[in-house]
Structure formats: structure tokens, C-alpha cells
């Protein structure tokens, strides 16, 4: 039986908000992301997912809910917390849970996914496995990951990118790995979609863009105006 950490128990049935901004964007400062995270907590988020060491530290200093930290480096292949070093740095910055790429692709430091998880568990870390397929989830489960997530579905070439959440993968993961908390992340854009995710058996749902990325949200609305549709 897979043991579920008390921090993860506290996420069950809740909304996790991803507060991330990228270089060149107007909100790309740790202080801004910390304020966004605090606003999300006040709105009912049970945890915050964030990217980058400065953001992790700033957000951890503002919120009372668990922080899921990651470090993106690069844009192709394994770039979400790609190495053991990246994961350790996220933990040192203050995250409660570290999210790492759990795909079967080669890792930059030459370690296997299982070796990375084993090293992190020896140091007392809680690991969230960002998966892109059912086979990834199987690898993550065998490695003893603490959380399985659909984060990378549609981004690794194994599965088609769906318009909304990958409900099929979510259902398959919930069915195949019933002992594990399975979190749905990726393209949850409406409250109704989040409700559907919960109905499919997700432990929790992660919403990012639709809550914390005003540039994209604005573009959705602008596209429905006469000016936007004419472009």
C-alpha cells in the first residue's frame, strides 16, 4: 500500500493554483508572483505551484499553504526540474513538494528517474511526478513517487494535445494507480472543467493560466470581439 504524506492528504479534493510568469513578461518578478499566490490562497487554493528558486522563496514567505516547487531550464526534452541538483535547489529554496519531469526521456545528468526519486526520498523530499503518458505514470509509480500528475500530457509527442484537460489519461491513471494520489494538471480553463476533473477521481486539480496569466486570459476575450476576430 502506497503511503500518503499528511501534506498530500491536505490537498485532497482541492484546487492547486500555478503562479508562474516567464522572462520578458510584465509580471516576471518574485514579489509579483508572491502577491498572486497570496491572492490565490485567499480565494481558496489549497497549494501553490511555482517555478524558479526566487519565486519559490518569495511565495513560501507569503502563503500558509504548501508550495510545490520546480525549476524549468531549457525548452526541449527534460526541462522541468531536469536533474537531482535542480530538485535539491528547489527544496533548499523552501518548497514542500518538488515537481520533476517523470517521462522516460534521457535526463541531463544521466540518472534514471528512479535513481532521482530514491535520492530525494533519502533526503526526506516529497516528489510530484509530472507525467506525459500512462507509461510515464507506470514508471513514476514503480519509482515510488508521492504524487502522479498529468502535467506533460500533449507536450512529449506521446499523446495528442487536447483542447482541455486530458480526461482519458486522467481516468486511466486513476484506474491503474488507485493507491496513488493522481493530480490533473494541464488546460483546465473553466470551473466546469475542474468539476469534471474531480468527478473523474482526481485527487486535486491544478489551474494556472486561467487564473494567473492575465495576458492569455485577455487574449481569450479579445479574440471574441469584432477587432479580434478580424485579425
TrEMBL record:
Pathway membership, UniProt: Amino-sugar metabolism; N-acetylneuraminate degradation; D-fructose 6-phosphate from N-acetylneuraminate: step 3/5
UniProt entry tagged with the keyword Isomerase: yes
GO molecular function: N-acylglucosamine-6-phosphate 2-epimerase activity
EC number: 5.1.3.9
Enzyme class per UniProt: isomerase
Chemical reaction(s) catalysed: an N-acyl-D-glucosamine 6-phosphate = an N-acyl-D-mannosamine 6-phosphate
Keywords: Carbohydrate metabolism, Isomerase
Its job: Converts N-acetylmannosamine-6-phosphate (ManNAc-6-P) to N-acetylglucosamine-6-phosphate (GlcNAc-6-P).
Classification via HAMAP family: ManNAc6P_epimer (MF_01235)
Protein name: Putative N-acetylmannosamine-6-phosphate 2-epimerase
